[in-house]
Design a protein that fits this description.
Elements: H1 4-7, H2 17-23, E1 26-30, E2 33-37, E3 40-43, H3 49-57, E4 68-71, H4 87-90, H5 94-110, E5 113-115, H6 125-132, E6 140-143, E7 157-160, H7 163-172, E8 174-177, E9 181-188, H8 197-208, E10 216-221, H9 223-226, H10 230-238, E11 247-249, H11 254-260, H12 269-280, E12 292-297, E13 304-306, E14 314-316, H13 330-343, E15 358-361, H14 369-379, E16 389-392, H15 397-405, H16 408-415, E17 418-419, E18 440-443, E19 458-461, H17 464-473, H18 483-490, H19 500-503, E20 536-545, H20 552-555, H21 575-578, E21 602-605, H22 617-625, E22 629-632, H23 637-644, E23 649-652, H24 655-666, E24 670-674, E25 679-681, E26 688-689, H25 694-702, H26 706-711, H27 714-727, H28 736-748, H29 751-763, E27 780-781, E28 784-795, E29 802-812, E30 819-825
Parallel strand pairs: 3-4, 3-6, 4-5, 6-7, 9-10, 9-12, 10-11, 15-16, 15-18, 16-17, 18-19, 20-21, 21-22, 22-23
Antiparallel strand pairs: 1-2, 2-8, 13-14, 20-24, 24-25, 25-26, 27-28, 28-29, 29-30
Helix pairs in contact: 3-7, 8-10, 14-16, 14-17
Bound molecules: 3-isopropylmalic acid and iron/sulfur cluster.
EC number: 4.2.1.33
Keywords: 4Fe-4S, Amino-acid biosynthesis, Branched-chain amino acid biosynthesis, Iron, Iron-sulfur, Leucine biosynthesis, Lyase, Metal-binding
Organism: Durusdinium trenchii
Length: about 850
């Protein structure tokens, strides 16, 4: 099979890079919904516990352990690990510890490769993927994290997903999706010295806004991106999510191939040649259509900084704090006033007059080796201004090691910087690194939302070079003024001392540990039936939340992300808007604290609701607070998606209607949201029709979960995987063929035996949710050993019907790990996941 992208090259229907990758990953298409295969799944501790628990509850396994890579980054302290014994004793904060320990247990139980705190490859999930060559051109890459867009720098289709989708990918290696629109952002010309990739992306967000890329996959092109290093491209793609697009990408080229060659998980030998040949085909065809097109001149870009609480609040460093009275739109003006008050700034203040107390260099945007070099070139031989605390947090253990090999750590510490261990650190402050209230920080991270780096903390986003300049000056500073001095000390700014050899040092791709018996052995738990239904909300109060760009950090701040449950988050909803600083006293000016809105089940909000982080904790918190439906002019893509996964209905409707509904809600009048008829009704008014995707509507009305539905398409996934193995052999992990062989060894001798066991098991399957016991006689036969028997229910072909199946996990006695074999089902579904019994799954 030729890859789809090659087959169409140059034909009558020119296609974009995104179109091609999409086509190469299409497993199945029906009713306007596509089942897309996922090549690479990165996992971290914050968004995975509930997903693994979901697998456990429904007795499911991780389908492609060889395509899944886990690490810890958000919760871990970045203090020295010299005395590290284990996570339990190292992480002082109880909830953070629980989340990390839970991941450790999950990777053990499900047999996943894991870079834990003792592993030098541990780091921020978006730094380690590319570093290992796990991220490859032409692949689909997902993670329960919005900055997965980073990996698009390699010409991959990479995007963040919610926890329900994490579970979906773990179980099926696919996602149900709708194709996004194509958007092109072209930046032509040459960047001036002192202007970096971070300035480019901040400038772009300033122009198109945080909702500018909504519903689109962005392709960055033009000489500026072509001339960028991979690190710089990653910083740009990383912040595509801040521009409202779920994914951003740059076509792979020689820079990409040079970066990748020799990395531990990259194809080798003939596979490398074959891969490069395919990767070269991954370019947008001449004449391909983009739904949105933006052109920017590189000469217009200056070192750029943020002044407010949204990444679109940018000005050149030579600019001033803007004046809200100049805003044309009322919601915008109110937003600006609030931002200035929060940031403690006066309109008209020169940006370079703003003094700072903290500097944070790190995060998945800017914690790679080039960023380290860039900072070193500015601070070499200088001192951090007195009264400023400055920290540098490398993105991974390998970045740290390389920086130290290059002597950069000495430059930092001599200048007065605190040189830390890798992690997300003060980007989000889920670990102990946080701003104090009112502290002002020059940060290289990607979000300046209220409370992001610590409650009441004030964040200015900028490039590593600019943050370094701020550290030295004690206030925001134009790094270009330092250029002559820097040239005298360093030669050229950020001159790369290229040392790829370091990265190509052979590293073993950890073999998973022996699969352990899970605690919930044999539990027959509801799966598809677990999703609440949504039909209508009759005669209910709606709460008017007259605010645009409500981000998910605002819907639920970081301190509540440490739970390993999906429930109990109601109190956390809008925590900082809702409570005074004591966290208990309600703010009277917040609408959800007023009657009758306190118990509202419908929320009517402004544009771009739910932007920012992919945290599914946001819909969980709203749901727990009693909100089942959100009406807004537009939604951020990931949040929108996450709502449906929790039986909630987001309705996108025009601004005029939203304003009309605000007035109606302010008059405390009731309304009905009817999904069956797809309309909003108010007494004495005409019904307002709304659009909802037919597939999602069907799932909501029937309370169906996607995983159950997808598992009905198992044979499509099987045959896609077989095609993928022959067309893109480099995408299968080194253990994959062994895994398949093992199943054959295990089952060939005894497939009828397994079928007998399974049928006997199904025959005795109780109607209730009593726990059937594993028959003790069925422990082993021949070379194969049954290590786990579970029942699971999947949605049947009849709407909403539940079909029990038996999943037997077997392993060859001589081989180290286990593979699930779905052998029989009851109630009309075919036997075996691939039409055969007990083989090859
Ligand atoms: C915790 C995670 C869901 C979140 C994200 O999606 O971005 C985090 O990384 C962030 O930066 O806010
Ligand atoms: S944005 Fe910050 S918190 Fe989120 S993954 Fe990146 S470094 Fe971690």
């Amino acid at each position: 099979m030729a890859p789809n992208s090659v087959r169409y090259e140059g034909e009558a229907h020119p296609r974009t890079l995104y179109d091609k990758i999409w086509a190469d990953h299409l497993v199945h298409e029906a009713d306007g919904v596509s089942l897309i295969y996922i090549d690479r799944h990165l996992v971290h501790e914050v968004t995975s516990p509930q997903a693994f628990e979901g697998l456990r509850m429904s007795s499911r396994e991780v389908r492609r352990t060889d395509c899944t890579l886990a690490t810890v980054d958000h919760n871990i302290p970045t203090s020295s690990r010299k005395n590290f014994k284990d996570t339990k004793s190292f992480i002082a904060e109880a909830d953070s510890r629980t989340q990390v320990v839970t991941l450790e247990q999950n990777v053990q139980e499900f047999g996943l490769t894991y870079f834990g705190m003792e592993d030098k490859r541990q780091g921020i999930v978006h730094v380690i993927g590319p570093e290992q060559g796990f991220t490859l051109p032409g692949t689909t890459v997902v993670c329960g994290d919005s900055h997965t867009s980073t990996h698009g720098a390699f010409g991959a289709l990479a995007f963040g997903i919610g926890t329900s989708e994490v579970e979906h990918v773990l179980a099926t290696q696919t996602l149900l999706m709708k194709k996004a629109k194509n958007m092109r952002i072209k930046v032509s010309g040459k960047l001036a010295e002192g202007v970096t990739s971070k300035d480019v992306i901040l400038h772009i967000i300033g122009i198109i806004g945080t909702a500018g890329g909504m519903g689109c996959v962005v392709e960055f092109c033009g000489d500026v991106f072509e001339n960028m290093s991979m690190e710089a491209r990653m910083s740009v793609c990383n912040m595509t999510i801040e521009a409202g697009a779920r994914a951003g990408m740059v076509a792979p080229d020689e820079t990409t191939f040079n970066y990748l060659k020799g990395r531990p998980l990259c194809p080798k030998g003939k596979d490398w040649d074959k891969a490069v040949e395919y990767w070269k085909s991954l370019r947008t065809d001449k004449g391909a259509k983009f739904d949105k097109d933006i052109h920017i001149d590189a000469a217009d870009i200056a070192p750029t900084v943020t002044w407010g609480t949204s990444p679109e609040d940018v000005v050149p460093i030579t600019g001033i704090v803007p004046d809200p009275s100049q805003a044309t739109d009322e919601t915008k003006r109110t937003g600006m006033l609030r931002a200035l008050q929060y940031m403690g700034l006066e309109p008209g203040t020169k940006m370079q007059d703003i003094t700072i107390q903290k500097v944070f260099i790190g995060s998945c945007t800017n914690s790679r080796i080039e960023d380290m070099r860039s900072v070193a070139s500015v601070v070499k031989g200088k001192k951090v201004s007195s009264g400023v605390e400055a920290m540098i947090v490398p993105g991974s253990g390998l970045v740290k090691k390389q920086a130290e090999a290059e002597g950069l750590d000495k430059i930092f510490t001599e200048a007065g910087f605190d040189w830390r261990e890798p992690g997300c650190s003060m980007c989000l402050g889920m670990n102990p690194d946080r701003l104090k209230p009112q502290e002002r920080c020059a940060a290289t991270s990607n979000r300046n939302f209220e409370g992001r780096q610590g409650p009441q903390g004030r964040t200015h986003l900028m490039s590593p070079a600019m943050a370094a300049a701020a550290a030295i000056a004690g206030k925001l500073k134009d790094v270009r003024e330092l250029l002559p001095e820097m040239q005298a000390t360093n030669g050229k700014m950020a001159e790369p001392t290229k040392s790829m050899d370091f990265y190509s040092e052979p590293i073993d791709w950890t073999a998973p540990k022996e699969v352990q018996e899970p605690p919930s052995e044999g539990v027959a738990a509801p799966t598809s039936a677990g999703m609440p239904q949504f039909t209508s909300l009759d005669d209910v109060v709606a709460c008017p939340l007259k605010k645009a760009n409500v981000d998910t950090d605002c819907i639920i701040p970081k301190q509540f992300l440490k739970t390993i449950q999906r429930t109990g988050l109601g109190k956390a909803a809008f925590f900082e808007l809702r409570y005074e600083d004591d966290g208990v006293t309600e703010r009277q000016d917040f609408v959800l604290n007023q009657e009758p809105y306190r118990s509202a089940s419908v929320l009517i909000a402004g544009d771009n609701f739910g932007c920012g982080s992919s945290r599914e904790h946001a819909p969980w918190a709203l749901n727990d607070q009693g909100i089942r439906c959100i009406i807004a002019p537009s939604f951020a893509d990931i949040f929108f998606n996450n709502c449906f996964k929790n039986g909630m209905l987001p309705i996108a409707i025009t601004k005029d209607i939203v304003e009309e509904l605000w007035t109606h809600a302010e008059a405390k009048k009731k309304l009905t949201v009817d999904l069956t008829k797809q309309e909003i009704r108010r007494e004495g008014c005409e019904a307002i029709p709304f659009e909802v995707d037919p597939f999602r509507r069907h799932c909501l009305l029937n309370g169906l979960d996607d995983i159950g539905l997808t598992l009905q398409k198992a044979e499509h996934i099987d045959s896609f995987e077989a095609r993928r193995s022959s067309t893109f052999p480099w995408l299968d992990g080194p253990r994959y063929s062994r895994m398949k062989a093992e199943v054959r060894i295990s089952t060939a001798k005894s497939s009828s035996f397994y079928t007998r066991v399974a049928k006997g098991f199904l025959g005795g399957l109780p109607a209730s949710d009593d726990r059937p016991e594993r028959p003790p006689a069925a422990q082993e036969e021949g070379d194969a050993e049954i290590i786990r028997i579970r029942t699971q229910t999947v949605a049947g072909s009849n709407q909403g019907g539940q079909v029990p199946q038996v999943l037997i996990t077997v392993k060859a006695k001589s081989k180290p790990h286990a593979v699930p074999v779905m052998v029989a089902s009851k109630g009309g579904a075919k036997e075996g996941s691939n039409g055969k019994q007990g083989t090859d799954w």
